[in-house]
Design a protein that fits this description.
Blueprint (H helix, E strand, L loop, with lengths): L20 H6 L1 H7 L6 E6 L2 E6 L2 H10 L4 E3 L1 H10 L8 H11 L5 H21 L5 E3 H17 L7 H20 L2 H5 L3 H26 L7 H7 L10 H32 L1 H15 L13 H13 L5 E5 L3 E3 L2 E3 L4 E4 L1 H5 L15 H4 L23 H18 L1 E4 L19 E5 L2 H5 L1
The chain binds protoporphyrin IX containing FE.
């Protein structure tokens, strides 16, 4: 079959039959980063399936914003549809526009102020359950916290469903990237990872369906997101169908907890290796909060905290975001035919030495001399851009600042100096293990 992307420069190292798939699966992050040497748009052959990779910030900006209307969610999202149905991440066209409008009010300022109280209360409770000398597995601990927070924001009074959902979510998350990258027949084989993925999906659906049904049949007023969804009406006064609510709930839980836990766990890891930054951060948090719990209004004053999180989100964003062109278009000057699959790697772009001097160094202060607004468009995209930009970006910045400030006032989470974490192949790469020890907070030891 003629390759419709034949005119686009190909990545080196293509094997017969498997193409670039083995290289991509073996070392995805390094491989995607190496492609910028080839050009702004590079062609890959994934076992006979052509895909192009946007390696320049301009190419990413064109896909997300300039020509955003020429792209739908692509293959990654087709494969996610059995789990997420037509939730906000997977839907396209008028359904997406309608749902985005219905969900947007749940992320407005007034709601964020109220969510901040839930976030702070949950973070306090977690931090107070740790004792000096405790050993924690950082990523899992923070995932438990961000998940518990998202679940409380979502269905305040249904804590009994937290555990089965969290377990199912973990299996789904582990399966997402392999499901998206493997050829369809392989992804469907009855192998243990595929079966785990399918079982977890069924469990998620049943649990959330039951909860939505309870909200419908016991229409007590509740101050949570699921109540808002069950009572929302579109421009024609129509309610959201139950299956659509289920898809949105699973989407928000999935999109909101692992991502936030990933960035936060890397933040504590880097702070453990940069004691001066941690000291500076602790001083800022103590100066702003004194002895009281954090409130939403404090967050704007935590400027160094924001830079630290911004830097971690630069070094540890999503590995890939995918799109499919619904028309012929151009990205960074390269012509792309209709129906082309496109990969954008925020991870590779954020580590481009032409954009970020010493890109592998954790340096929050770089955001003082080089604020995000001074960078080329498409150079800093932890939440992507355009009409498909993360709906939870303010929610995420808020919850990360709340958790960081609350934990650091209570204790330090010191990484094991002998453990060198490995980044796992996941949609959002987190560490294989991040063992930490709970230590007294810095202002006490330094005093
Ligand atoms: C540090 C944390 C987070 C990161 C790095 C992150 C990143 C992203 C990215 C890159 C996208 C765009 C995907 C694409 O263009 O295909 C996205 C979309 C989305 N995110 Fe987030 N996210 C985070 C937290 C959250 C939270 C807390 C929520 C909800 C509570 C959330 C809900 C969503 C939803 C619903 C979408 C789809 C939006 C749409 O297509 O209209 N995310 N996120």
């Amino acid at each position: 079959m003629k390759d419709p992307l034949a005119k686009i420069p190909a990545a080196p190292g293509r094997l017969p039959v498997a193409g670039h798939l083995p290289r991509l699966l073996r070392r995805p992050l390094g491989f995607l980063g190496s492609l910028r040497e080839v050009g702004p748009v590079v062609r890959l052959d994934l076992a006979g399936r052509p895909v192009c990779v946007a390696t320049s910030p301009q190419a990413a900006h064109d896909i997300f914003s300039t020509h955003g209307r020429h792209f739908d969610k692509g293959r990654l999202f087709d494969r996610l549809r059995p789990v997420l149905g037509n939730g906000l991440i997977t839907s396209n066209g008028t359904l997406h526009t309608r749902q985005r409008k219905l969900l947007q009010p749940a992320f407005n300022h007034a709601h964020l102020v109220s969510y901040t109280q839930t976030m702070a209360r949950r973070a306090e409770a977690f931090a107070h359950s740790w004792h000096i000398g405790d050993r924690l597995e950082l990523y899992q601990t923070l995932l438990d916290l961000t998940f518990a927070t998202a679940a409380e924001v979502m269905f305040s009074s249904e804590s009994a469903i937290d555990v089965p959902i969290a377990q199912a979510m973990a299996h789904v998350n582990a399966g997402i990237l392999p499901q998206a990258l493997l050829p369809a027949p392989l992804a469907r084989l009855p192998l243990p990872p595929n079966l785990r993925y399918q079982r977890a999906t069924r469990q998620l659906h049943t649990t959330i369906d039951r909860t939505v049904n309870r909200y419908r049949t016991e229409p007590t007023e509740r101050d949570d997101l699921l109540f808002a969804l069950t009572t929302a009406r579109d421009d024609n006064g129509q309610p959201m169908p139950d299956a659509q609510i289920r898809d949105e709930v699973i989407t928000l839980l999935l999109a909101g907890s692992e991502t936030t836990a990933t960035v936060l766990s890397w933040t504590f890891y880097h702070l453990g290796r940069h004691p001066q930054t941690e000291q500076h951060l602790t001083e800022e948090i103590n100066a702003v909060l004194a002895d009281r719990p954090i409130e939403h209004a404090d967050i704007a004053r935590l400027t160094h905290t924001r830079r630290v999180l911004q830097e971690t989100a630069r070094l540890h964003p999503l590995a890939v975001v995918m799109r499919r062109s619904n028309a012929s278009t151009t990205i960074d000057g390269t012509a792309i035919p209709q129906n082309s699959e496109v990969i954008i790697s925020p991870y590779a772009i954020h580590r481009d030495p032409n954009l970020y001097p010493e890109p592998l160094t954790f340096a929050p202060e770089r955001w003082i001399t080089q604020p995000a607004a001074s960078l080329p468009k498409g150079a800093y995209i932890p939440f992507s851009e355009g009409t498909r930009k993360c709906i939870g970006d303010h929610f995420a910045w808020t919850s990360m600042a709340v958790i960081l400030a609350t934990v650091l006032r209570h204790c330090r989470l010191a990484p094991d100096p002998h453990h060198h974490p490995r980044e796992l192949l996941a949609a959002h790469p987190h560490a294989d293990r991040l063992p930490v020890t709970v230590q007294p907070p810095l202002h006490q030891t330094a005093g």
